[in-house]
Amino acid sequence: MTKPSWQSSTFAEQESDPLAGFANIMDVMLVFSLGLMLALVAQSPELQQKLNITAAHKTLEVKAGKELTQLPAQLDQALKGQTQGMESLGQVYKDPKTGKLILISKEN
User: Fold this and answer.
1) Which InterPro entries match (predicted)?
2) What Cα–Cα distance (Å) separates residue 106 from each residue in 68, 92, 101?
């Protein structure tokens, strides 16, 4: 027996998913918990103290230097490899395009 046209609709034939409402509740809970976490982080006094930038307001005085005609003793010793506990591992070059440092090590 066929149903009359007023009784047959696509909504009546669709199966309802009982977990669809539960999924919507889970979405609301996730959004609420995220909002709560953001509110707690925004009101945290420990985080606000670390966000204060005071070094940006300081100015450094630049003094004119003098030309060195002779290497200082410490630098001269370091260039000759006579440092205390330190050893030279090679030359370091900086790539001007990327800013990466490249180490060319010595052959032993």
Assistant:
1) DUF2149
2) 29, 11, 16
Contacts of 79 (CB under 8 A, 6+ apart): 71
Q: In this structure, is residue 89 part of a structural domain? A: no
Residue with tokens 């047959």: 8
Cα-based distances in Å from 78 to 32, 72, 81, 108: 61, 10, 5, 19
| Residue 92 CB-half CA count within 13 A | 6
pLDDT greater than 80 at residue 52: no
Give the chain's domain count. 1
Which pTM does this prediction carry?
A: 0.31
The verdict on residue 31 lying in a domain is yes
